[in-house]
Amino acid sequence: NREKAERAERDRAERETAARNKPTEKPRDNNEVAKAEPENKPETKKEREVEEVNESGMNEAEIKLASSFAANRGRLPWPVPGFISDDFGTKEIMKNVNQENYGIDIQTKAGTSVHAVYDGVVMQVSNDPTIMKNFVFVQHGDYYTVYAKLRSVSVQPGQRLKAREVIGVVATDGEGVSELNFQIWKENKNKANRLNPESWLRPR
Question: Which domains, ranges and CATH numbers included, belong to the chain?
């Protein structure tokens, strides 16, 4: 009996020693939950709009302006009164000699004011002392209107314009002819596609 008691005592002591040496499981840290991968949240409308702006290169106001400009094809007011004296496109002026007009020339009276055909922002005012004289670029989203052969300019870059607002005064050449060169461009992947302005102006 004494041997059984001693053996039982040794077994109990070994179990206690083994229990003390057994590594305990580390309690789960709450921070581990925070380290889990975040859920993929659905895109908000604002985030989608930002992506769309970045892809097109225009903000929401410019996109709206371009859409409304395009919707007015065939209904834009004439920048000056008069008649088309030179058509859009390439034409043969002499044998084997071609001349290209990127817009249309509108002949009018000397000293006539030139008006913007649509709301927009003045992007550039430049001067060509030879043929085009002063000219103005106005942006309408990804559309541009160009007003060339101006004697004087009354706008500056960055200025916001309303339709029919005065841009400048048409120039008169040495032969006494007063003409405005009017162009419409459409930007497409950083390239300018020149359009026939006649199809954009309202019929007379």
Answer: 45-199 (2.70.70.10)
